[in-house]
Design goal:
The protein is of the alpha+beta class. The protein has five helices and six strands, in the order αβββαααββαβ. It folds into two domains: 108 residues, 2-Layer Sandwich (Zincin-like); 41 residues, no CATH class. Helix content is 40%, strand content 14%. The chain binds zinc ion (ZN) (2 copies).
Length: 166
């Protein structure tokens, strides 16, 4: 992840440019200005982005951005920007309510969808394969670590045997 001192990579630059263009669209639509948000790429897991209303801050997921740059820039960026714009125009309202939907539709010309449809395989929690006497089981990283450290044993509900790593 680039710190502010590093040269910004092209995707990060495209992200910032898309945010700016969303703000320009909104400013010409409403004929007013909006304060620009602080932007970071410090988001992990399966969420694509988040808007922090009181701090006027946006966070985006660099892995999902890199894997789905077009859809990310087209939809995720205006989705999160719309949350901040709704906050500035209406204060606290339902996150994906009528005001947000109208922001997506009327300002950005997009279908207001609340969830992204990216393949999250690369950011999904990893699991470990274990076996009993009747089937294979997938253990979470947390459970796998407990077994590895000898802190826990897990029994199959089907056959009652202790699970062993495959
Ligand atoms: Zn949202
Ligand atoms: Zn079993």
């Amino acid at each position: 992840m680039p710190s502010s001192a590093d040269p910004i990579d092209p995707l990060h630059r495209a992200l910032l440019a898309r945010i700016e263009s969303c703000y320009r669209q909104a400013e010409s639509h409403f004929d007013r200005t909006f304060p620009r948000p602080a932007v970071s790429l410090r988001m992990r897991g399966q969420s694509a982005g988040a808007a922090h209303l009181q701090d006027n801050r946006l966070r985006f997921n660099p892995v999902l951005l890199a894997e789905n740059p077009d859809a990310f820039l087209t939809e995720v960026v205006p989705h999160e920007v719309a949350h901040l714009l709704v906050w500035h125009c209406h204060g606290r309202v339902a996150p994906h309510g009528a005001q947000w939907q109208s922001m997506m539709r009327d300002v950005f010309g997009l279908v207001p969808r609340t969830r992204h449809q990216f393949d999250v395989a690369s950011v999904a929690p990893k699991t470990y394969a274990y076996r009993c006497q009747c089937q294979e089981h997938q253990l979470t990283v947390r459970r796998h670590n407990k077994v590895s450290r000898g802190q826990a044993r897990y029994l199959c509900r089907g056959c009652g045997a202790a699970l062993k790593p495959v």
